[in-house]
Amino acid sequence: MEDIQGNGAGLKLSRRLSALAGWVPAGARLADIGTDHALLPVFLASSGKVRFAVAGDVHRGPVEAAKRQVTEAALQEVISVRLGDGLAVLTPGEVDTVVIAGMGGSLMVRILDQAGDRLLGVRTLVLSPHVAEGALRSWLTANRYLLDHEMLLEEDGVIYTLMRAVLIEDRDEWSVLHSRLYDPSLAAPCLTRIPLPLMYEMGPLLMRNPGPEFEKKWLQEIAKKERVVSQLNHSDAPEAAVKAEEWEQDIREIREVLACLPVEKRSSN
Prior knowledge:
Blueprint: E1 2-4, E2 11-13, H1 15-22, E3 28-33, H2 39-46, E4 50-57, H3 60-72, E5 79-83, E6 97-103, H4 105-113, E7 124-129, H5 133-142, E8 145-155, E9 158-167, H6 171-181, H7 184-187, H8 196-202, H9 204-208, H10 212-233, H11 240-259, H12 263-267
Parallel strand pairs: 3-4, 3-6, 4-5, 6-7
Antiparallel strand pairs: 1-2, 7-9, 8-9
């Protein structure tokens, strides 16, 4: 936990939120979507890292708690707390950085898809989905946001995925950088081919620099998938065998990637 001492806030930030805070550009105009108690905006504003912040949440209870937090920190002139769904709390061009954490990747995709022109001027996305990371990375690709940071962080027994992406406006530059980012020879050199959907799921930068959390996370995913396969194999449904083969193929592909991890990474577990 990281202490927040500025303006007498007396708050503590989790390791995950501390890591996300570190990826917010200095001088940013920030929106924290799903802000809960506005811990992240208060931390960043107290330290002077952001010029302005919107703390948005769809639920009234967290919004009221966030307002109290902001008032206690005497940051009402810097942080605007708003009730609303996703990026609907913003006006176009109001912020240049958006943080979304603590929800599933599919919900994040819906929020970003529905943002419309409220994403105008947003150059940096700092994201922490707890499931469906592949759907989110696919959305980033479709909208020319390029991953420049990824990490896995284990806290209180949970492995969190953190990612940051920046907008690349020039299409030619985007094409070159994206091809390099998702180059299988850089992600897992001992494999001749990696399906793009699998790279979306596992994370191209995480695959290049797999720490101990990477293997732990994906061994857990394999165990989950094997339980599903076992259930399908005991089903009489006509489509069960086909689905079981699809899941088994997923497991084989994940195991192939894990086998490409450097020996020292695998043995560190």
